[in-house]
Amino acid sequence: MSKNKSKNSVVEWIDYRLPIFTFLNHELNEYPTPKNLNYFWNFGSLAGITLVVMIITGIVLSMNYTAHVDYAFDSVERIMRDVNHGWLLRYIHMNGASFFFIVVYIHIFRGLYYGSYKAPREILWILGVLILLLMMATAFMGYVLPWGQMSFWGATVITNLFSAVPLVGESIVTWLWGGFSVDNPTLNRFFSLHYLLPFLIVGLVILHLVALHRFGSNNPIGIDAKGKQDTIPFHPYYTIKDLFGLSVFATIFAAAVFFFPNFMGHPDNYIPANAMQTPAHIVPEWYFLPFYAILRAIPDKLGGVLFMFGAIAVLFILPWLDKSPIRSSQFRPIYKLFFWILVFDCILLGYLGAKPAEGIYVLLSRVATGYYFFHFIILLPLLPNIEKTRPLPISISKPILSSSSFSTAAAVREKK
Amino acid sequence: MAKKENNNRRDFLVISTYAFGAVGAGSFVWPLIDQMNPAADTLALASTEVDLEPLEEGQAITVKWRGKPVFIRHRTKEEIMSAKKENLDNLKDPQKDEDRVLNEKYIVLVGVCTHLGCVPLGQKTGDVKGEYGGWFCPCHGSHYDHSGRIRKGPAPVNLEVPNYKFLSDKLIRIG
Ligand code: HEM
Ligand code: FES
């Protein structure tokens, strides 16, 4: 299994000159993977596959889409009614964006729960946060393309966030728009960038994988694999597990596409954009709601914008905020509790983002926003001082501890 | 000594090469960035004329200027009074009503909320007009008074008064 000794002479001839087969064999076949990964480790490959689905459906949608304010809405309606299978392609792309975020959010919370951002995986984690940012930009600009009411007003509100920048804010917004309001130049550039950014994401995903394969996957107990007895080859064990996960995912995805294609969308986006009238309630796509809630929780325009971006910025420095050397929550009873509070907090923020900014909702948004930052900035750095962690197992193969088998190495680690 | 001079000469060459490189790269990047600013034809569309003749007291119309709504309201006596007598200390962005109109009967405003750009309600008769009777932005709850001044909510400044002038008694040109 160590070297790619193919029997095929053509493969060998190529591999000698361009070691692509050796590379693939190394990274996807024999690649040693911790043997105890659970189903939360499926979401990385699911995210990758969803990205490919988005790119493929996006390219064919572009063949039928017209990026002009007078035609964009109608061209999308034509895709829905007249283009062969157009409805299917659009519904896959439209729901695919939502599923992409579901998968990536689970992937991120997996990382938070099992401490996957800790040394030596900091850069891996940072690349992931960058991917999240680019995904958000891509999804935001994609949502503008059908040029419905929510497209237009979502674009207006979000681009206006930049007007909060002191001094140059207005110039930045005019520059983003290419005019004095969201209009044809805006639509054109958003289409261009919406086409481009997913390919930049592909580039980041490759770097993400390079960083991953440097030390291999983290695992549910968060201790390093200590040799062959702790790992299994990626193929066939995880290829088959990923494929099984994919079939389950694809079933749910298909159910959404065929039976509830507009469930996660907003009906107002089937009304053509009208620059003279704002819909009664502007809400962003669901995957932006927690951030939108943070934006509105702060009573100051610039402050709101800073806190909203800050909510992602804290993720970049998370590996240095969390001072505990223990990765997995399984051995951190207090962190585990607060992890679930954070999950609840984020869901609450999402709920509040969809509600009008008045009365009790404003108060709750402030509390939930405060808690979000408290978790990352105050709790995580201080927690190791008070938390009594559970003893770590000796290795992945010997997860069960008897007091005699409690290795000194693990004890030292734990004390730190 | 000779060596030192040589070093200075090297440094000079290196630094000036970087400097020229930076200027060259910058002058290539600038057109790439500046192409996103409004084009000449977009700038050329910048003025609109409006006839105020049909606008009765208490009525409002919305016209489109540079892709944005402009609110024009023929204010009633009471509305003018309430806008004028407002104590400036109560305002977030203090401005006298006189400084926001050319003819106090007509208030002309860019109908774009200064918070994040929604179009406030208050032009149509049935609209919610907010606690100060002018306009109300439903997006995040900004209340404006009869002079379009921000009174309550997240918007930082008053509704913008566009550049306009009276061409005759009842005809204005915006922009
Ligand atoms: C990161 C991957 C991507 C995400 C998250 C994404 C997201 C979106 C979203 C949310 C919409 C609006 C759907 C709707 O409501 O109709 C959209 C539309 C669109 N996207 Fe993408 N997209 C991605 C990749 C791509 C790529 C790679 C292309 C082109 C090569 C593309 C081309 C289009 C086109 C032409 C539309 C307009 C048609 C329509 O609205 O259905 N997308 N995208
Ligand atoms: S856009 Fe008007 S209150 Fe936010």
Please tag this protein with its features.
heterodimer; A: 416 residues; mainly alpha; Cytochrome Bc1 Complex, Chain C; two-stranded antiparallel sheet; disordered C terminus; B: 175 residues; alpha+beta; three-stranded antiparallel β-sheet; 9 strands; elongated; binds protoporphyrin IX containing FE; binds FE2/S2 (inorganic) cluster
Give your account of this protein's structure.
The complex is a heterodimer of chains A (416) and B (175). Residues 402-416 of chain A have low confidence and may be disordered. Chain A has 15 helices and two strands. The radius of gyration of chain A is 24 Å and the shape is globular. In chain A, strands 1-2 form a two-stranded antiparallel sheet. Chain A has a domain at 39-217 and 237-284: Cytochrome Bc1 Complex, Chain C (Up-down Bundle). Chain A starts with 8 loop residues before the first helix and ends with a helix. By secondary structure, chain A is mostly helical. In chain A, helix 5 (86-114) packs antiparallel against helix 6 (122-144) and helix 6 crosses helix 7 (149-160). Chain A has helices at 9-17, 20-29, 43-62, 72-81, 86-114, 122-144, 149-160, 169-177, 184-215, 234-259, 289-297, 301-321, 333-353, 360-386, 408-415; strands at residues 32-34, 231-233. With 175 residues, chain B is α+β, with helices and mostly antiparallel strands. Chain B contains three helices and nine strands. Chain B has helices at 2-34, 40-44, 77-84; strands at 48-51, 60-65, 68-74, 106-110, 135-137, 142-144, 150-152, 164-168, 171-174. In chain B, the strands form three sheets. A three-stranded antiparallel sheet of chain B has the order 1-9-8, with no helix packed on it. Chain B has a three-stranded antiparallel sheet with strand order 2-3-4, with no helix packed on it. In chain B, a hairpin with a 2-residue loop joins strand 8 (164-168) and strand 9. Chain B is elongated, with a radius of gyration of 25 Å. The interface between A and B is medium-sized, with 34 and 25 residues. The structure holds protoporphyrin IX containing FE (HEM) and FE2/S2 (inorganic) cluster (FES). The site of protoporphyrin IX containing FE (HEM) has 26 residues of chain A, from helix 3, helix 5, helix 6 and helix 9.
